[in-house]
Design a protein that fits this description.
Length: about 350
């Protein structure tokens, strides 16, 4: 019995620590659907209930003196001292809990709040990439050569996409209705819906000088689109690359990738439940040869444009989308088979049928 008590106590301690840790992490990163946090929560509840069941006598013994003041002369069989000791430790526990809570919630962040340092990289980069008159004079110089405009997987199986279904919802309505949706039903979406989403993301709308649905600085189009397919009618699960020119998909890696993509996205549940997960990457040199150090700014802006297009198209199709900025870069790049230097994943968006 003693061993079981000990085991339950440890379980309770560890699962509570996991709840606290994953909760703090989720708060720092602004995540709201972290599965490991949820599971540790359930585990803590189960362990807590078991702990209560095994120790309920102690529980009632401790606060009793507070609820009902006992006579100074306790019953002989109540073991003199237990009542007093119980009351003291109960009050001490409450006091410590309060002080601990206050310190963790208010004082520690005050004392150790991290102020942005002047040498913070983003600040330095922003300043360094600002346009100045001197910079404009140098801007005629090129940084290397422009790479190929379109990425190809010649040995990959190509799947032609049907024409995208027209989005009939008004822009006004789509804007008003757009929300980040993280709860999805386990029903498939159609290939025509996926086709419409891909067209909205990066589809070609002007064939003469191929221009696309989303704007791009200098029409250089540095972004690539990958889809991790979980549940789409007439399409096997796997990782696909969107071949923009042909409006087709190229199968890079077949198989169920739900676990892998979810882990890469810090265990965020909606990456698992979605029908499809979009990953936007950039081939930096496509924009860098012309815009030099400023290119990175433009590339991130462009990813935002594409992301919003996916959000709005999903809304117009009656689907739900959610952006994911928190992911393990290396893990995601490896999944896509890109090096993370010349080409790197920038932005993830889940799309599914709203619950
Ligand atoms: C760049 C960016 C990164 C985001 N990353 C995440 C994320 O990792 N996980 C998540 O659940 N939501 C993420 N979101 C969604 C935001 O939480 C959401 O947009 C915000 O709460 C506003 O809600 P709304 O989109 O419904 O208006 C991200 C949004 C943006 C723009």
């Amino acid at each position: 019995m003693r061993e079981i008590r000990l085991l339950i106590s440890w379980l309770l301690l560890l699962s509570s620590a996991a709840v606290a840790f994953t909760g703090l992490l989720a708060d720092w990163w602004g995540l709201s659907h972290v599965r490991i946090h949820l599971w540790s929560g359930y585990m803590a509840i189960v362990a807590g209930l078991a702990h209560l069941a095994l120790n309920w006598q102690n529980l009632f013994r401790m606060p009793r003196p507070i609820i009902r003041r006992e006579k100074r002369t306790p019953q002989p069989n109540l073991r003199k001292g237990v009542t007093m000791r119980g009351r003291r430790s109960f009050l001490r526990g409450i006091g410590l809990g309060l002080v601990g809570g206050l310190v963790t919630a208010y004082l520690l962040p005050l004392l150790f709040s991290v102020r942005p340092r002047v040498e913070d990289l983003s600040q330095a980069y922003h300043k360094w990439s600002s346009i100045t008159l001197r910079g404009v004079l140098w801007s005629g110089l090129r940084w290397g050569r422009a790479p190929a405009q379109y990425k190809r997987y010649p040995s990959a199986k190509q799947i032609a996409l049907p024409s995208p279904i027209p989005l009939t919802m008004s822009v006004q309505e789509a804007l008003d209705r757009r929300r980040s949706v993280r709860d999805y039903r386990p029903v498939p979406i159609t290939l025509a819906q996926l086709s419409a989403l891909l067209h909205a993301a990066q589809g070609i709308t002007e064939p003469t000088y191929p221009k696309r649905t989303a704007p791009s600085a200098g029409a250089l189009y540095p972004l690539e689109t990958y889809v991790v397919v979980h549940q789409v009618e007439d399409l096997k699960p796997g990782i696909y690359h969107y071949a923009v020119l042909d409006h087709a998909l190229e199968l890079i890696s077949p198989g169920d990738k739900r676990r892998e993509i979810t882990l890469a996205c810090l265990d965020q549940e909606h990456a698992h439940a979605a029908n499809v997960v979009f990953v936007l990457s950039a081939i930096f040199q496509r924009e860098r040869w012309k815009y030099q150090g400023r290119a990175y700014r433009y590339i991130l802006m462009e990813a935002g444009h594409v992301g919003q297009n996916i959000y709005l198209a999903a809304t117009a199709l009656g689907l739900g989308a959610c952006a994911i900025g928190a992911f393990y870069d290396d893990h995601l790049n490896t999944m896509l088979g890109i090096d993370g230097e010349e080409e790197a994943a920038l932005y993830v968006l889940t799309v599914g049928v709203p619950a």
